[in-house]
Amino acid sequence: EAGVAQSPRYKIIEKRQSVAFWCNPISGHATLYWYQQILGQGPKLLIQFQNNGVVDDSQLPKDRFSAERLKGVDSTLKIQPAKLEDSAVYLCASSLNRVNTEAFFGQGTRLTVV
Amino acid sequence: AQSVTQLDSQVPVFEEAPVELRCNYSSSVSVYLFWYVQYPNQGLQLLLKYLSGSTLVKGINGFEAEFNKSQTSFHLRKPSVHISDTAEYFCAVSLSGGGADGLTFGKGTHLIIQP
User: Fold this and answer.
1) Is the dihedral of CA B88, A49, A86, A23 positive or negative?
2) How many structural domains compose chain B?
3) Which residues of A touch B42 (CB under 8 A)?
4) Each residue's pLDDT tens digit, B37-79
5) Distance CA B97, CA B115 (A)
6) Using one digit for the tens of pLDDT, what is the confidence trace for A61-92?
7) Cβ atoms within 10 A of the Cβ of A90, count?
8) Whole-angstrom Cα distance, residue B63 to residue A33?
9) Where do the domains of chain A lie, and which CATH numbers do they carry?
10) Which chain B residues contact residue A35 at CB under 8 A?
């Protein structure tokens, strides 16, 4: 079965520009997560969706980050405007549901803000 | 809130030697425990997980981990490592009592296999 797809794989932007990342979860997976992985650290949860509803966005910097999953399938994460400290790998993950199931991760989008 | 501490940022081991990667967690409520592996330029892959039951959990690629509630630890072990085990290993927890259940990760341990 196809895994979690993310695009683009790499993105370089200047500070104060905007950027968007796209994620297509595994077919049939109701739960979708976005994580931020800064170099040398473990991934940090930004936002969790259950179908098209937000379950947890407590660690999402809402003044500049936004995410949506309008039809309960694909998701987009946006940063506007970007700061230097946003340089990181953005990982998307999906799971069948929220209870006792494995989260499958995409390869991530590496963002460099210069 | 829960947290995860991985005590070693790097662990060098000779090929075919045993290895233990240490993980301690902190939480005021019950948690599920996980170990993920990340190969260069790739996403994370689940090695094993503890949800309930037997405290010794076996995973893929010959890895196993033991849940110790009194020491709040979940150390990962492999009796004989291979060069292909070189990767970053992450310990993670999630709440088991419902509600938001995203993973909280440790900072990772880089396992370096020396020939």
Assistant:
1) positive
2) 1
3) 107
4) 999 878 899 999 998 889 999 999 999 999 999 999 999 999 9
5) 44
6) 999 999 999 888 999 999 999 999 999 999 99
7) 23
8) 26
9) 5-113 (2.60.40.10)
10) 102-103
